[in-house]
């Protein structure tokens, strides 16, 4: 946690979403799954964001899955599912790239690579930790509002950078 998966996905979404006809970014699948009707709540968000679909007639997973499959099968769609923490969430949300139009992409963000492999994703990208130069730059911008270390803090900054080992959220 804290390596920047969601931040990276948000930037990616902002940069490429205009290339797709239907787009959605589900912020926190795990939380939404728990608080809002399980998979049906997530499916309703997908339909709302991609199609502007009125959710009042959707009362069960079968109906939602059918609508997603039928209405998006000819659409070039981008779906980002953030913070997936159980394989069952993906299975019950029931969205598969082959159900979507040509060129569609589903990006799944998870702390657990095992979930992604078990679900059968095409590729796994591991967000690298920041190198020492970028770590220093981020820390200085956040702590000092500058791009450089204040002289009196050089030793402290070196200790902090060593301790956090490139983890952006900690920085």
The major β-sheet equals: 3 strands, parallel
Tally of domains: 2
Low-confidence stretches: none
Shape: elongated
Distance between the termini: 13 Å
- Number of discrete helical segments: 8
Helix content range: 40-55%
How many β-strand runs? 3
Q: Approximately what portion of the residues adopt beta-strand conformation? A: 5-15%
Walk me through this protein's architecture.
With about 170 residues, the chain is mainly α. The mean pLDDT is about 90. The longest helix is centred in the first third of the chain and has 13 residues, at about 40-50. Strands 1-2-3 form a 3-stranded parallel beta sheet, with helices on both faces. Helix content is about 45%, strand content about 10%. The chain is elongated and about 65 Å long.
Describe the structure concisely for a colleague:
This is Putative resistance gene analogue protein. The chain has eight helices and three strands. The protein has helices at residues 5-16, 29-35, 39-51, 61-72, 87-93, 113-119, 132-143, 154-164, and strands at 22-26, 77-81, 105-108.
């Amino acid at each position: 946690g804290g390596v920047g998966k969601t931040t990276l996905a948000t930037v990616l979404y902002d940069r490429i979403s205009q290339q797709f006809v239907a787009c959605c970014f589900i912020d926190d699948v795990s939380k939404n799954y728990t608080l809002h009707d399980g998979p049906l709540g997530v499916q309703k968000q997908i339909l709302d964001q991609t199609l502007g679909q009125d959710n009042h007639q959707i009362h069960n997973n079968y109906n939602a899955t059918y609508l997603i499959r039928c209405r998006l099968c000819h659409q070039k769609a981008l779906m980002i599912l953030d913070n997936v923490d159980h394989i069952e969430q993906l299975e019950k949300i029931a969205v598969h790239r082959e159900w979507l139009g040509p060129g569609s992409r589903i990006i799944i963000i998870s702390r657990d690579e095992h979930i992604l492999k078990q679900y059968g994703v095409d590729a796994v990208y591991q967000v690298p930790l920041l190198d020492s130069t970028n770590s220093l730059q981020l820390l200085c911008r956040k702590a000092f509002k500058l791009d450089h270390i204040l002289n009196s803090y050089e030793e402290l900054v070196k200790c902090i950078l060593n301790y956090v080992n490139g983890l952006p959220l900690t920085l």
